[in-house]
Amino acid sequence: MLNEIGEMEECRIFKILHVHTLPVISGSGIHTLIIMKGLDRSKYKVEFACAPGGDLIKEVVNCGIEFKPIKHFVQEINVYHDLIALWELVYLLKKEKYDIIHTHNSKAGFIGRLAAKIVRVPIIIHTIHGFAFHEFEKPPRRILFIFLERLAAKFADKLITVSEPLKRWGLRLKIGKAEQYITIHDGIEIEKFKKVNIDIEEKKQEFGIKQGELVVGVVSKLWEGKGHRDILKAAKGVIKKIPNVRFMFVGEGYLREELERLTQQLGLSENIIFTGFRRDIPEITAIFDIAVLASYYEGMGRVLLEAMVLAK
């Protein structure tokens, strides 16, 4: 791969397309945005392809990065939408003639790598932020996703993992070859958290948290696999012993209504706060006494790194 890059004309600007499935501000979305922001614009023209309509797109456009909508990108397997999304990407790649395509997530990773292979994009890179399967789910789905990951790995020049355990997991499942892998540890925008300077009690009042109440915080999209139900069930036992504790769930997602119903069923409505989507994560994290992440599978829990900066 490096030889191919070296053979390219040094004087011209390389075109790079990053491909992400959904336009949500999540760990992989923030990671991708940081990478794109950090590229030298005098050497690289970077563009971003993703499903349209979310907050991540606003952040991308605000950074001066051109957005290419893939209208039929959806999270779950859907033959109709997935085939059209493949056609959208093939058309885009043929039209724009990118030098490098860098895919993220399982869905965008599979369709994006396949499209790049069809069009013969010179360099194909995929970042594994985490796999779309885990050991606690039904075997048929897990077997299917492992097969798809093994197939898609054949289309990539390099596979980047955000942690060493993720690399070992992929190799153990025979996803790609050892020489394809490189680990680049996930990072955070540390200065945003080091510079937090707020009145903690005043920030707590914004959420109706009284002085002296302890705060257990969970920053995560409200999706399957993030362990929110487990945290709520554990919270019931914690609150019995420590009544003056509040649990904050920071993030949005399709499980919100179900989790709010479970909160009521457990009789925890007075102790649980759902904030929805927030942009002030550093300031919110600052009011936590304890930061929790209960994911069943996670490539690199960046929210824990952020909490550590604030000594949580």
Multimeric organization: single chain
Structural class: alpha/beta
Number of helices: 13
Mean residue pLDDT: 92
Count of β-strands: 11
Radius of gyration based on Cα positions:
21 Å
Write the CATH homologous superfamily of the largest domain.
Glycogen Phosphorylase B
Mind summarizing the main beta sheet?
Answer: 7 strands, parallel
| CATH class annotation of the largest domain | Alpha Beta
* Known CATH architecture of the largest domain: 3-Layer(aba) Sandwich
Separation of the first and last Cα atoms:
42 Å
Q: How many structural units, i.e. domains?
A: 2
Order of secondary-structure elements: HEHEHEHEHEHEHEHHEHEHEHEH
The CATH topology annotation of the largest domain reads as Rossmann fold
What is the molecular shape?
globular
**Strand ordering within the main sheet:** 3-2-1-4-5-6-7
What portion of the residues fall into strands of 2 or more residues? 15-25%
Proportion in helices: 40-55%
Low-confidence stretches: none
Summed up:
The chain is α/β, with parallel strands linked by helices and 312 residues long. The chain contains 13 helices and eleven strands.
Provide a descriptive summary of the structure in words.
This protein is α/β, with parallel strands linked by helices and 312 residues long. The protein has 2 domains: 2-183, Rossmann fold; 190-309, Glycogen Phosphorylase B (Rossmann fold), CATH 3.40.50.2000. It contains 13 helices and 11 strands. It has helices spanning 2-7, 27-38, 55-62, 79-96, 106-119, 139-153, 164-172, 190-194, 200-205, 228-241, 256-265, 281-286, 302-309, and strands at residues 14-19, 44-50, 66-69, 100-104, 123-128, 158-161, 181-183, 214-219, 245-250, 272-276, 290-291. The strands form 2 sheets. The chain has a 7-stranded parallel beta sheet, with helices on both faces. Helix 5 links the parallel strand 4 (100-104) and strand 5 (123-128). The longest helix is centred in the N-terminal third of the chain and has 18 residues, at 79-96.
